[in-house]
Amino acid sequence: MNFSPHALRQRLVDLSSQRYRSAGRFAYYFARGKLGGDPVFLGLLKRGLIPDQARILDLGCGQGLLAAWLLATRHCYAAGEWPAGWPAPGQPAEIRGVDLLHSDIRRAQAALGAPARFEQGDMRHVDFGQADVVVIMDVLHYVDIPDQDEVLRRVRAALPPGGLFLTRVGDASGGLRFKLSNWVDRTVAFFRGNRLPPLHCRPLTDWVQSLEALGFSVETTPMSGDLPFANVMLVARLD
Q1: pTM
Q2: From first to last of its 239 residues, what are the pLDDT tens digits of the chain?
Q3: What Cα–Cα distance (Å) separates residue 234 from each residue in 40, 61, 144, 206, 231?
Q4: Could you tell me the sign of the dihedral formed by the alpha carbons of 217, 72, 55, 59, in that order?
Q5: 202 bridge partner residues
Q6: For a surface tag, which of 16, 140, 198, 211 has the fewest beta carbons within 10 Å of its beta carbon?
Q7: How far apart are CA 185 and CA 193, in angstroms?
Q8: Rounded to whole angstroms, how far apart are CA atoms 176 and 185?
């Protein structure tokens, strides 16, 4: 296999976004823009972070883009469209997505089937059940800090030993880059039909300390791509 990362991303964007044609023009073009422009999706594959046959809980799943992306990798890998030296992609046993917005859940349900399933709910209250991987990308700052800490405690309870928690947060100590990322966050929320909520952001060191106190080993890596943001991905594993 000697497929370039750029070619893989384009192929996965095409395959993943095609599923959303049945969900309407907005869903289709939003999928193409988000999957093509956000480095986190390709980063998950390059690092081989998704174990094979994992039960994945995606909190704040939006219209299910992570599920669409992971399901598309099966086709690319089987077809030999995969970069040399990259780990084989894990295929999820199940993907459960939860989001607060009914419109996003409706789009996800229209576009995706088994092994993905989606439900409307608030991550502060929904039953997490049990999972091997919990994903919360770019939404923890929409709830206040006590609720953030409670969500993290419940994530820890939902995972087995060796379980994985993946999240991306804005580093509140990031200065101008952090302010810019917050402005973009609010703008995107507005155009997706959300009211402009107060944001509850924390310095990166606070996030790491909170997770370590729960028994996680934490790796951090910048995850803004070429954009001047203060976004950081945390890869937290239970010891």
Answers
A1: 0.89
A2: 678 999 999 999 999 999 999 999 999 999 999 999 999 999 999 999 999 999 999 999 999 999 999 999 989 999 999 999 999 999 999 999 999 999 999 999 999 988 999 999 999 999 999 999 999 998 999 899 999 999 999 999 999 999 999 999 877 765 555 555 655 565 566 555 556 667 888 899 999 999 999 999 999 987 554 554 568 899 999 98
A3: 11, 17, 19, 12, 10
A4: positive
A5: 171
A6: 198
A7: 13
A8: 14
Task: Dig out the tokens for 76 from the structure.
Answer: 């690319």
Please spell the DSSP secondary structure of 36-79, one letter per residue: HH-HHHHHHHHTT-S-TT-EEEEET-TTTHHHHHHHHHHHHHHT
Task: Provide the pairing of β-strand 231-238 with 164-170.
Answer: antiparallel
| Contacts of 45 by beta carbon, 8 Å cutoff, 6+ apart | 8, 73, 86, 89
> For tokens 């077809």, what's the residue?
79
